[in-house]
Amino acid sequence: xxxxxxxxxxxxxxxxxxxxxxxxxxxLTFTGVAGPYWPVVVAGLYGAGAxxxxxxxxxxxxxxxxxxxxxxxxADFVKLEAYLADIDLPPAxxxxxxxxxxLLGAxxxxGWVAEALAQDPEGVHxxxxxxxxxxxxxxxxxxxxxxxxxxxxxxxxxERHLERQLGLLKEEAEQLASALxxxxxxxxxxxxxxxxxxxx
Length: 200
Known about the structure:
Residues 179-200 are annotated as: Disordered. The protein has 200 residues and is an all-alpha fold. It folds into 2 domains: 1-52, no CATH class; 66-198, no CATH class. 79% of the residues lie in helices and 0% in strands. It contains 8 helices and no strands. The longest helix is centred in the last third of the chain and has 42 residues, at 158-199. The two termini are 55 Å apart.
């Protein structure tokens, strides 16, 4: 703790500016201008430099990196899969859910896709929202309402709503995957052009 404070002071603007002015005082001493009062001159210039130094910039907030955010989303995705494993869904809804979770798993799997996703804050937010809110809410709403609507003749079954919701979420995830694929293709084309231009 004390060592970090000392290092922080040594790297501070006040110390660096004061040290620069103190060096100027040493130059005056060696040129004979300061005379026998050179310690006072050097100390005075150091103090003046420290007082005139610009104020320290506040440190920027330490937000989690995109890769750390993806790690948190992966952990939440594992929790979501454990929750979904205990839910009994009709075949069509289960198929739609399987397609969506496979796509989300592919987006979150470590590799170039996740690296590309980490560079897209809106994409990270979309995946986070899907994993943490949209899918759990859709499935929970189905579980809560399916028993109440069974005795109601003519009502649209809740599994239809769930299938539509999961279909919309899958379309959104597919659009994100397509955008990431296009961005990677553009990056590759750009690198190819760079290599071609370098040969000329």
